[in-house]
């Protein structure tokens, strides 16, 4: 059975009799129970993190980095075990599950190095005999609300920059993937992170998550989830003027121009649309295709999507695993029905649950699905489905493609596939997304670069890279005047 535990002030707490049941999405079988924490557990975890903050923040940043470097090594040694756990709890296929873990390893190595680089800036003063520079300071207790779709990678994106800056952490994991977070924190503890610096409270968003966001001793909140939940989190944190980062939904587009290599485009679309069974905020759910190649691309894509192997994620031959829970499967089915009922849209392939062997009959699977003849204003072209469904939209030129691409409330990831350098450069500047891919699909991030989006995808902050350090630290400006007299800056002389 999967073990998901609370961890408060250096003590592991097992799930009680009223815990949250966890299921294997590949089979539907009960695999474990997570604690059902609430306000009392959040209060205890925050108190522990607050008490641990002075000593951890005063630990030299290079020493904190050494601990995180060891954590990377420990995760490397446990990579397959952690990958299996990712597949078991949320269904991701093997190569993606192992990639999820590798991303956390990469982040730990990268952030460990930042322990010797938490740079400020020095700059000349406008006055003589005066020095000006900036320092980075930790903020305090960080409340981290992690999603289920990257159950080890995203916790690393949130916690490691926070820790290297000298902050302490209280995690609220997704109800589906508490075992993954338990295992991740075990690696941090084995590496030497002191008691109280990292804490876990499992529970629902309405109970544990809400208590964490509203806690007066938690000045920083980072949450990944739906746009609707992000609005609630932002409102609940606003009265206390907390630092808030919300990473939210997406409706990402891939532009395919008339000079594109269509075979390559199909491979890029398959990976973007059906990777993680479409359960990524960067999933390629809109394919914006030039009229001249639309029909040829549709034919190739429909055949390739229908040929995708669906099944248990740890099977090497499987390309598309299950979705995370029954409600996710039901949502996908509702949107397929909406698409079929929208005037003009045409279901080309997929659109149903697949026939699978009896041992997988209880799992939550959906066929890779392609819609054609979709117009930009249709619901399946505007609303996030979060499943293996993509829609082709026909356009006549690059300008129209860019308008269609930008015509949603989201702005996370965009892509263009073309051989035309000028078209690529124009798209790079014009696409209203935080991430732009030229000659590729919409998914795939690297830990040393900022990750995040525009418009309803977030609130302007970014994860990963140096921007993660920026979010989890305060800038302090220091002036040293050694002139021996009173000098007044910004006075008209």
Uncertain spans: none
Number of helices: 15
CATH architecture of the largest domain: 3-Layer(aba) Sandwich
- Strand % is 15-25%
Range of helix content? 25-40%
Total count of strands: 22
Query: What is the straight-line distance between the termini?
Result: 75 Å
Give the number of domains.
2
- What is the CATH class of the largest domain? Alpha Beta
CATH superfamily of the largest domain: Aldehyde Dehydrogenase, Chain A, domain 1
Mean pLDDT: 96
What order do the strands of the largest sheet run in, or round the barrel if closed? 15-16-17-14-13-19-20
Main sheet attributes: strand count, strand direction, barrel closure: 7 strands, mixed
Instruction: Please tell me how large the radius of gyration is.
Output: 24 Å
Estimated structural class: alpha/beta
**What would you call the shape?**
globular
The CATH topology assignment of the largest domain is Aldehyde Dehydrogenase, Chain A, domain 1
Task: Please characterize this protein's 3D structure.
- The chain has about 500 residues and is an alpha/beta fold.
- The protein folds into two domains: about 1-250 and about 460-480, Aldehyde Dehydrogenase, Chain A, domain 1 (3-Layer(aba) Sandwich), CATH 3.40.605; about 250-440, Aldehyde Dehydrogenase, Chain A, domain 2 (3-Layer(aba) Sandwich), CATH 3.40.309.
- It has 15 helices and 22 strands.
- The chain has helices at about 40-60, 60-75, 80-90, 95-115, 155-165, 180-190, 205-215, 225-240, 260-275, 290-305, 325-340, 380, 400-405, 420-430, 465-470; strands at about 1-5, 5-10, 10-15, 20-25, 30-35, 120-125, 130-140, 140-145, 170, 200, 220-225, 245, 250-255, 285-290, 345-350, 370-375, 390-395, 410, 415, 435-440, 455, 475-480.
- It has a seven-stranded mixed β-sheet, with helices on both faces.
- Strand 6 and strand 7 form a beta hairpin.
- Helix 1 (about 40-60) packs across helix 7 (about 205-215) and helix 2 packs across helix 6 (about 180-190).
- It starts with a strand and ends in a 12-residue tail after the last strand.
- The mean pLDDT is about 95.
